[in-house]
Amino acid sequence: MEVKPLKYKELPGLSTKQLSEHHDVLYAGYVKKFNEIVEKSKTVDLESTNGSYSELRELFVEKNFTLNGIKLHESYFDNMTDQPSVIDGTIKTLLEKRWGSVEKWQVEFSALGIASRGWVVLAFDYQLGHLENYIYDVHNQGGVADTELVLVMDVYEHAYFLDYATARKDYISAFMACVDWDVVNKRVAHQV
């Protein structure tokens, strides 16, 4: 697996330094560690597995953690832009259908950004047949099966601390102003 490049250097409300540390150090570190885990998994002793402890289990727990960390970060970086866009099209229709208005959805999504320890995800839930907001307190806890990521917001401190210190609410406002609604619409185009 390789590090995917950013499509911007800075964003309104997120500095080059903040984005560089987040993308080039933290996210790239997940990619590096995932590749190491994959290689180590090829040589793990399958005969020594045990319910109390096994290297195999530990490798697969960390494989899930790093891979979700990679995928969530890639979705997060991809669903932001330095060119402001407006909520319209399919995503607007789906948000209004589920929450009654875009504003009501945004209030809930932003509040979840304060409540979550790690991630807020707007996802299409195939069984429910509509959009839902979910939180992931860590990369490998909180994901709901049979859903598709639509919008991903990182609320771990590393996502904003250099620019906002402890002012998470201000970061969430900046994030919402940087959402690339064209990307989000592509993610839900097949849902109508």
Verbal overview:
- The structure is a single chain.
- The protein has 192 residues and is mostly helical.
- The chain folds into two domains: 16-78; 89-191, Iron/manganese superoxide dismutase, C-terminal domain (minor pseudopilin epsh fold, 3-Layer(bab) Sandwich), CATH 3.55.40.20.
- The chain contains seven helices and three strands.
- It has helices spanning 16-41, 55-78, 89-99, 102-115, 161-164, 168-177, 181-188; strands at 119-125, 130-136, 147-154.
- It has a three-stranded antiparallel β-sheet with strand order 2-1-3.
- The model has no long low-confidence stretch (mean pLDDT 96).
Q: How much strand content do the residues show?
A: 5-15%
Oligomer: single chain
Shape: globular
Number of strands: 3
Structure characteristics:
single chain; 192 residues; mainly alpha; minor pseudopilin epsh fold; 2 domains; 3-stranded antiparallel β-sheet; 7 helices
Note the topology.
Layout (H helix, E strand, L loop, with lengths): L15 H26 L13 H24 L10 H11 L2 H14 L3 E7 L4 E7 L10 E8 L6 H4 L3 H10 L3 H8 L4
Antiparallel strand pairs: 1-2, 1-3
Helix pairs in contact: 1-2
